[in-house]
Amino acid sequence: MSTKAYFKRSEIGAGKPGFSTTRSIIEAAFYGNNVIKVNTLKEAYELAKNSPGTVITDMPVYRGEEFGLEKDAKVLLFNDGYVTGRCAAARNVSGEPGVNCTDLDQKLMNAIYDTRYSTLYHAEVYIGLDPEFMVKAHLLIPKGEENILYSWMLNFQYMSDNYVLMYKNSKPISNEADIYIISNPQWKHPEHPLGLTYFNTDTNCAALLGMRYFGEHKKGTLTIAWAIANRNGYASCHGGQKRYNLESGNTFVASVFGLSGSGKSTITHAKHSGKYNVTVLHDDAFIINTETGSSIALEPTYFDKTQDYPTDCEDNKYLLTAQNCSATLDEDGKVVLVTEDIRNGNGRAIKSKLWSPNRVDRIDEPVNAIFWIMKDPTLPPIVKLKGAALASVMGATLATKRTTAERLAPGVDPNALVVEPYANPFRTYPLVNDYEKFKKLVEKRNVDCYIINTGDFCGKKVKPADTLGILETIVEGKANFKPWGPFKEIDIMEWDGFIPNLDDPNYKQQLIARMNDRVKFVESRSEFKGGYDKLPEEALMALKQVVAELA
């Protein structure tokens, strides 16, 4: 699916598809006489390497020539100051209640005007790695921010000969224009002390102002791509997907959904001690065709935490760039990374596609199972949801804890249990769109749905070995699920050491309270943002039935 790069003159004008005030403000800046086009990864690497403050490590980029770099390319490190996470409080989406687009458009005009004496770099990438879904994205960013530019081109698909040809032959779609994003990490405004991320996803554009953290650029770009996918019949997924290729010749396609730090990357890339031949689609961003059940990866590389990868870890062989880590000299006097979040929380790195030896860009086999990853201490390590409405609304009320990948506004409790629908805080369309798409997968395509708790259960930590063992039991068809207490649409597989006791009044009250939290969340959507995220009555009734069954 290719987006429109050019318009006939008769297609240009007010009220026509692809045109808005915000889009017009942003796109014009790309054609300024202070703009330099960066066409290749080699160019971007040289710019980033020579950018002030870059740490050029002595760690080689493994097989970098295979994806557009020179053979002697090194891993580059850049640190952003004290900001090392995303900021939801800075996010503004055109069309949502309470967003004053007139005010933001005027600020955006001034932000672009203020770059007129700066050199700006323009880069292009593809999002979506299959001819069925490929969109083109453009980034404009000032000189001095070369490391963000380079990482952005690495994170998405740079314009290699193969992908240029693939895009040329991809399925065209009408009325979807190329994505245009303008960024100025040094922008400051007294009314936006945390910065400003401003999206008009209806016309595929965004401004990222005052945002140094690369994750804002990655997720900001995906925000628009996911919105395009949503409009065109796909379920937009912030999660991971893998295919288990079993010795019997059967396959099992599992999709896991969770926020950063929930374990979705661990689950996606788990080798299972070599028990299976595993194929990985991606661990962060993909889409599911709700008609066919097939899935497409949106990115070639991985933007991963470095916390669990010590300096001498073999996985670090696949690093391309690093952010918000330290460096030191090894025994040979070589500059190497210091990881494990010693400098700060949420150290990050981009890893190459080669990190997953059995990586693919598309999985044709329909999804077999969806796993909502939650950190809810009242839920056992695994339950199965049987009703389509309950399965989807539990995804819409996915409960978890905040992570170090987030930059919180003052006064926000970092330890509070929060609800993040479908583990996707980057959605810019009504919540009901996701609800209906995931419900359709369960109801029409017979996809099984589970909740995995990767946090604590009644004070006892659920270890990765428990989670992976549960998954293996399900994949092998050996899972023994049975009705859980009074619930009509929730089954449980009892896992040793984590068997809930519904006869314990304290536990039962806590479980009721957490389910009521979900009820209240869905009820609150009728008023929140003027009802923008209101869900159907059946979604609320499915949750209330669970509470009633416990009473």
Your description of this structure?
The chain has two domains: 2-54 and 84-233, Phosphoenolpyruvate Carboxykinase, domain 1; 235-290 and 368-498, Phosphoenolpyruvate Carboxykinase, domain 3. The strands form seven sheets. Strands 12, 13, 14, 15, 16, 22, 23, 24, 27, 30 and 31 form an eleven-stranded mixed sheet that branches. It has twelve helices and 31 strands.
Poorly predicted spans: none
Number of helices: 12
CATH homologous superfamily annotation of the largest domain: Phosphoenolpyruvate Carboxykinase, domain 1
Number of strands: 31
Per the CATH scheme, the topology name of the largest domain is: Phosphoenolpyruvate Carboxykinase, domain 1
Strand content: 25-35%
Helix content: 25-40%
The chain-level mean pLDDT equals 94
What is the structural class? Answer: alpha/beta
CATH top level class name of the largest domain: Alpha Beta
Number of domains: 2
Q: Span between N and C termini?
A: 50 Å
How does the overall form come out from the CA principal axes?
A: globular
CATH architecture grouping of the largest domain: 3-Layer(aba) Sandwich
Rg calculated over all Cα atoms? 23 Å
Sheet with the most strands, sense and barrel status: 11 strands, mixed
Topology:
Blueprint: E1 2-4, H1 21-29, E2 35-37, H2 41-49, E3 55-60, E4 74-78, E5 91-93, H3 101-113, E6 120-130, E7 133-142, H4 146-155, H5 161-168, E8 172-177, E9 179-184, E10 196-200, E11 205-209, H6 214-231, E12 234-245, E13 251-257, H7 264-269, E14 277-282, E15 285-289, E16 295-297, E17 302-305, E18 319-323, E19 326-329, E20 335-338, E21 348-351, E22 362-363, E23 369-374, E24 382-385, H8 388-396, E25 399-401, E26 417-419, H9 431-443, E27 448-453, E28 456-457, E29 460-461, H10 464-475, E30 482-483, E31 490-492, H11 505-524, H12 537-550
Parallel strand pairs: 1-8, 2-6, 4-18, 5-10, 7-9, 9-11, 13-23, 23-27
Antiparallel strand pairs: 3-4, 6-7, 10-11, 12-13, 12-14, 12-15, 15-16, 16-22, 17-21, 18-21, 19-20, 24-27, 24-31, 25-26, 28-29, 30-31
Helix pairs in contact: 1-3, 2-4, 8-9, 8-12, 11-12
